[in-house]
Amino acid sequence: MKRYNKDLVKLRFENSFSTYDEHAVVQREMAEKLADYVFASCGENYKKVLEIGCGTGFLTRHIMNDFKIKKLLINDISPGVIDYIEKIAPYCNFLIGDMENIVFDTKFNIVISNAAFQWAEDLQSMINRFYHVLKPDGVLAFTTFGEHNFEQITKISNRKLMYKNLDELEPMFPDFEIKILKEEVINLEFKSPVDVLRHIKGIGANAMAAEFWTKGVLKDFNKKYRDYFSTEEGVSLTYHPIYVVLKKKDKELEVI
User: Fold this and answer.
1) Where are the domains of the chain?
2) How far is CA 232 from the centre of its chain?
3) How buried is 81 (Cβ within 10 angstroms: 0-12 exposed, 13-18 middle, 19+ buried)?
4) What CATH superfamily classification does 6-251 receive?
5) How far, rounded to the nearest angstrom, does the alpha carbon of residue 202 sit from its chain's CA centroid?
6) What is the pLDDT of residue 251?
7) What is the average per-residue pLDDT within 91-102?
8) 206: confidence class by pLDDT, cuts 50, 70, 90
9) Taking each helix axis from N to C terminus, what angle separates 193-202 and 6-23, rounded to the nearest 10 degrees?
């Protein structure tokens, strides 16, 4: 059974392009922090760069501004991102398609991604694939979300979102040296549960659960949300970002 309907994920993100930059305050911050972690732990020089799941370009801006690169290949599941990315990185190349199925004919110094890896059906397999397209001493850097992400939605809907925690992620990197493996919890405040739903729709994340919002369902959602998650400002929504920076081990040079 698949974790997500990727056609629905693609559609929801495409519908949110015009609102994403306004609502995705956490994702914007994650992109900046990931770039800082890469810079601090692995340096700034990357001749060939692959960005996975670029969206509207939060991370792309940091790649262009913070790193010394020569070639940039951009991936996303939606061709609609091209209009956004060409304004940020006019000389990049595009490879549109599902990040788990795309095929590469070259190797990279860094594979980097912000807020996309949580959509993988088989994260371990995808990480293994990226290992093989990295050059020696190449870097794999990404952000994803942990088990507390959107925990309010999980509790009310009784739908378990299949996020991995740090203990589950760490064993997935045996072929890499772990440079950064960090997490944080961010609570956003909204005036009402309806504003939470607008926020989730605004970032295209409403593909996590396809709901039919009748008046009765919305009323029940609103009551439960206020009962469980009221704050002085209104109600809260939790984000649980995880930051990962890995450096490829050269298996041929490992001492047995």
Assistant:
1) 6-251
2) 30
3) buried
4) Vaccinia Virus protein VP39 (3.40.50.150)
5) 16
6) 67
7) 96
8) confident
9) 110
Strands 176-183 and 186-190: unpaired
Going by C-beta distance under 8 Å and a sequence separation of 6 or more, which residues neighbour residue 107? 48, 133, 134, 135, 138
Q: CA-based diameter of the chain, in Å?
A: 64
**How many whole angstroms separate alpha carbon 93 and alpha carbon 76?**
12
Q: What is the pLDDT of residues 74-92, one digit of tens each?
A: 999 999 999 999 999 999 9
**Per-residue pLDDT reduced to its tens digit, 212-256:** 577 888 899 999 999 999 988 899 999 999 999 999 997 655 443
Q: Where are the beta strands (DSSP E) in the chain?
A: 45-52, 68-76, 93-96, 108-113, 134-145, 176-183, 186-190, 235-239, 241-248
Mean pLDDT of the chain: 92
Give the Cα separation of 32 and 61 in Å (integer): 9
How far apart (Å, rounded) are the C-alpha atoms in residues 38 and 93? Answer: 22
Please report the pLDDT score of residue 208 as a whole number: 55
Instruction: Decide if 212 contacts 123 (C-beta within 8 A).
Output: no
